[in-house]
Amino acid sequence: MAHGCCRRALWERYWKEGQKKDSMTGASEELGAATVAEWPAGLAAVLTGAVDQARAAIAEVSGTDAVGEYLGVAYEDATAATHRFLAHLPGYQGWQWAVVVAAYPGADHATVSEVVLLPGPTALLAPAWVPWEQRVRPGDLGPGDLLAPPADDPRLIPGYLASGDPQIDETAAEIGLGRRRVMSAWGRAQVAQRWHDGDYGPGSAMARSAKRPCRTCGFYLPLAGSLGANFGVCGNEMSADGHVVDAEYGCGAHSDTPAVAGSGSPIYEPYDDGVLDITERPAES
């Protein structure tokens, strides 16, 4: 197998070539066309003719018959060339086997230098690695999990600073009851925008179909502080019970929703079995 530095160099080279050309063989043919004629007689033929040797090397290294279609040869220099084959491996769609062979002037056969697996132009690659703190999403936190805020979280400020919300500042300043950190004005603005654009905001399907907003509903419990002007908690167990809702959100369970007129089915008359005559069944003869 290839050494780390060689493998990386080959990987970068073939990946760049694959991005520039849609054809898997075009880059290989053009790479050495201008210089092959200037190399020692017979050396290019030895390197080019090592296809079967390269295929056997792949089978030996991989331990499986994972060699597909031959894709062509590219020349590294006057004494080395790379043969490429399509890889038939589960999970490596579009990848290629690259076998580097070398020979010296006058040699009658080539020697296999390295065998590597490289991504081709249409290779299926794993997604870029993302740090864990960027992978955490709302709803991922479970019982017993710990999730500390970032060191310089802009959503929070020290409790002894003025946050801009009188009610928060009053609570934070209480001796012995104050919080070490409270939400900053920037953090509250982010919260307000998220709630406004969420499932309980005025743009949701439920709100668009409602005739009355939450701000006029008897089940609407406004929040304290600066957010109370635009948000509250729904207290109707048949609706958004316990959820923070936008004042302009609405649903069909508004406290002023009129009762349905009439009773029973609007299509059929009620069936009264109290007016039936009950008779005995005649005896069988």
**What number is the mean pLDDT?**
78
The strand order across the widest sheet is: 1-2-3-4
What would you call the quaternary organization? single chain
Task: Calculate the terminal CA-CA distance, rounded to whole Å.
Answer: 101 Å
| Extended strand count | 9
- Strand percent estimate: 15-25%
The poorly predicted ranges are 1-11, 14-34
Instruction: Work out the helicity level.
Output: 10-25%
Helix and strand succession? HHHHEEEEHEHEHHEEE
Task: Output the number of helix runs.
Answer: 8
Structural class: alpha+beta
From the spread of the alpha carbons, the general shape counts as: elongated
Major β-sheet annotation: 4 strands, antiparallel
Computed over alpha carbons, the radius of gyration is 38 Å
Protein name: DUF3027 domain-containing protein
Organism: Mycobacterium botniense
InterPro entries: DUF3027
Tell me what you see in this structure.
- The chain is of the alpha+beta class.
- It has a domain at 4-119.
- It is built from 8 helices and 9 strands.
- It has a 4-stranded antiparallel beta sheet with strand order 1-2-3-4, sandwiched between helices. Strands 7-8-9 form a 3-stranded antiparallel beta sheet.
- Mean pLDDT is 78; it is low at 1-11 and 14-34.
